């Protein structure tokens, strides 16, 4: 089984709808991240969390919110989706006590019409 | 933006040839990492080089770091068709955050 899972894998939604992307991990890591990837721009950080009570904004947090429901779960919400939020979204985890490496989920492809 | 830049943006080579891709960044770093992404999939960590290291090897991968030029290179030797993917550098600027700043990526195509 994959260590970092994301649901859904693909999602089509309409402008103005609220949607939630979910991330779960079985690695036992304390740190979790949400990124978006757009063609030609690499990955950009949306939000990150060091533990359940710690949430931090990343480079491009406007229009997004997150919830860290448990150490293993980190959800990303688009309160009112807009077409320029069409992108590939990745969740990642890390554990600084062992390595600076981040471990990525398979991604969620989101299309906002 | 602190985002790093990679060049070339795209690279096409024949199987057996070596592939070199470069990454430049803007401020002092704690470490620099290289990741690989197969089309539409998640990123996979390849190798990490710390700011006090100049060269590191892992199998067919060789990474160099020149902190005076704020640049790194990734060399893949004896490339295979299965190496076809996008490669990203990511810089860790240190501190307690472990935030990574990703480059724009190099798309490598290895022709059989």
Biggest pleated-sheet summary of chain A: 7 strands, mixed
The Cα radius of gyration of chain A reads 13 Å
Strand-pairing-aware structural class of chain A? mainly beta
What's the shape of chain B?
Answer: globular
> Helical segment tally of chain B?
0
User: Whole-Å distance between the termini of chain A?
Assistant: 33 Å
Helix content of chain A: under 10%
Q: Residue share in helices of chain B?
A: under 10%
Features:
heterodimer; A: 113 residues; mainly beta; 62% strand; globular; B: 112 residues; six-stranded mixed sheet; five-stranded antiparallel sheet; 11 strands
Layout of strands and helices, then pairs:
The complex is a heterodimer of chains A (113) and B (112).
Chain A: E1 4-7, E2 10-13, E3 19-25, E4 31-38, E5 42-51, E6 54-57, E7 64-70, E8 73-78, E9 87-95, E10 99-104, E11 108-112
Parallel strand pairs in A: 2-11
Antiparallel strand pairs in A: 1-3, 3-8, 4-5, 4-9, 5-6, 7-8, 9-10, 9-11
Chain B: E1 5-7, E2 10-14, E3 19-24, E4 31-37, E5 43-50, E6 55-58, E7 61-66, E8 71-76, E9 85-92, E10 100-102, E11 106-111
Parallel strand pairs in B: 2-11
Antiparallel strand pairs in B: 1-3, 3-8, 4-5, 4-9, 6-7, 7-8, 9-10, 9-11
Explain what this protein looks like in three dimensions.
The complex is a heterodimer of chains A (113) and B (112). Chain A has strands at 4-7, 10-13, 19-25, 31-38, 42-51, 54-57, 64-70, 73-78, 87-95, 99-104, 108-112. Chain A has no helices and 11 strands. With 113 residues, chain A is mostly beta strands. In chain A, strand 5 and strand 6 (54-57) form a beta hairpin. Chain B is 0% helix and 55% strand. In chain B, the strands form 2 sheets. In chain B, strands 2, 4, 5, 9, 10 and 11 form a 6-stranded mixed β-sheet that branches. Chain B is globular, with a radius of gyration of 13 Å. Classes of the chains: A mainly beta (113), B mainly beta (112). Chain A binds chain B through residues 4, 31, 35, 40-45, 48, 56, 58-59, 88, 90, 92, 94, 96, 99-107, 109, and chain B through 1, 3, 9, 30-31, 33, 35, 40-45, 48, 88, 90, 92, 96-100, 102-105.
């Amino acid at each position: 089984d994959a260590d970092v899972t994301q649901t859904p894998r693909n999602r089509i939604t309409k402008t103005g709808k609220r949607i939630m992307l979910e991330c779960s991990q079985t690695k036992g890591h304390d740190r979790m991240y949400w990124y978006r990837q757009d063609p030609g721009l690499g990955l950009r950080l949306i939000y990150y969390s060091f533990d359940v009570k710690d949430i931090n904004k990343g480079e491009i947090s406007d229009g997004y919110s997150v919830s860290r429901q448990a150490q293993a779960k980190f959800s990303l919400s688009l309160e009112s989706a807009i077409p320029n939020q069409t992108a590939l979204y990745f969740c990642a985890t890390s554990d600084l006590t062992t390595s600076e490496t981040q471990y990525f989920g398979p991604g969620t492809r989101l299309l906002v019409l | 933006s602190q985002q790093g830049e990679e060049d070339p943006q795209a690279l096409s080579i024949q199987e057996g040839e070596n592939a070199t891709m470069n990454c430049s960044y803007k401020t002092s770093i704690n470490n620099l990492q290289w990741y690989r992404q197969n089309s539409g999939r998640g990123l996979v960590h390849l190798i990490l080089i710390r700011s006090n290291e100049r060269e590191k090897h892992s199998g067919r991968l060789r990474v160099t770091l020149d902190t005076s030029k704020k640049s790194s290179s990734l060399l893949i030797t004896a490339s295979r068709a299965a190496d076809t993917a996008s490669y990203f550098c990511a810089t860790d600027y240190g501190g307690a955050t472990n935030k990574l700043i990703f480059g724009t990526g190099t798309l490598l195509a290895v022709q059989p």
